[in-house]
Every structure is written in C-alpha cells, then in structure tokens.
Amino acid sequence: MDMETLRRSCGACDKCRLAETRTNVVFGVGSEDADLMFVGEAPGENEDLSGIPFVGRAGKLLDSYLTAVGIDRDSVYIANILKCRPPKNRDPLPDEEDACMPYLREQVRLIRPKIIVCLGRIAAMRLIKPDFKITQEHGVWFRRGSFEMSAFYHPSALLRDPRKREDMLNDMQALAEKLKTL
Ligand code: URA
Known about the structure:
Layout: H1 3-11, E1 29-30, E2 36-40, H2 45-50, H3 57-69, E3 77-80, H4 94-111, E4 115-119, H5 121-127, H6 134-137, E5 142-144, E6 147-152, H7 155-160, H8 165-180
Parallel strand pairs: 2-3, 2-4, 4-6
Antiparallel strand pairs: 1-3, 5-6
Helix pairs in contact: 3-8
The chain binds uracil.
C-alpha cells in the first residue's frame, strides 16, 4: 500500500467511537523519506480542526525546540498514536489504540525512519515498553529492530511544568547530534 492509499483509508476509518466525534482525521505530516519520526499521543482541538498534527500551543513549543537545535520540521515526519481527537482530550482508551495502531505501523513501514522519538508517556508506553517511566527514562535510547528509539517529554507537559524545559533542550540537542552521525 502507498501513503496516499493509506491516508485515504485512514480518512474514512470508522473502527472506533472517535469517528463519531472527530472533525478531521489527523493522519500525519512531513517528509516520507524522513530519517526521524516523532510520534505523539492524539490530536487536540487545533489538530482536529486543521487535520495537521502539533499545530496548537504544544506544537508551537515543539517547533521552537526543533528550531533551537537546527532540525527542519519539513525534514521529519510527525504523527500520533491516535489519528482522531478523544473528546475533551481525555487519554486514549486501549481499544482505540489497538484499532489505530495498524495505521502508524504502516506509516513506519513506508517511511522507514532510522530514529523514532515518542513525545510523552502514552506513546512511549505503546511503542517502547509498557512500563516506561518518562521522568526517569526520557532521552534514554533503546534499540528496537532497525530503529533507535527514545521518548521525550510531551510539549504539553512542558507548558504545565516549565522546569522540565531544560531536560527537553538537552534531549533535543542529543537528538540533533545523533542525526548528524547517520
Ligand atoms: N498533542 C499530541 O500528542 N499530538 C498532537 O498532534 C497535538 C497535541
């Protein structure tokens, strides 16, 4: 399956209850031959309205880190575990993640990134390990098959707790260095 076919099938998805409340499916954005892929949790209000991941306040903060360390947002791929917004931004339910994961798996298969960075605990628990502890393990690198994987703080967590921002900058700087060695 190619990316356009996948995008179209995802756009018509009704595999879970979120199909009833979404405005737009938020499939993913960026370069289809990216070395680096970011995976967040689920669309928020601005993403649901625009159909583009990480465009709200959290997204703007993510952009500022990318700019700070010299990573071009257009050169990476950005997606989420869930393609549809959960009502009132509640946490994804397990059956919603199960229903949605095949889309992300197929995106990863098509893009074949070398590095996958989870944004926040929810993505890390799903993609790296179920008992991932974001406070202790953010910025730690894990090898999973052909992928180097890590999880960083979710930008929304940085909006709530600015004391985490220094750690985020360090993690982003290490990521930028790693990208240069590919
Ligand atoms: N938070 C996420 O996890 N993903 C988005 O796309 C926006 C906010």
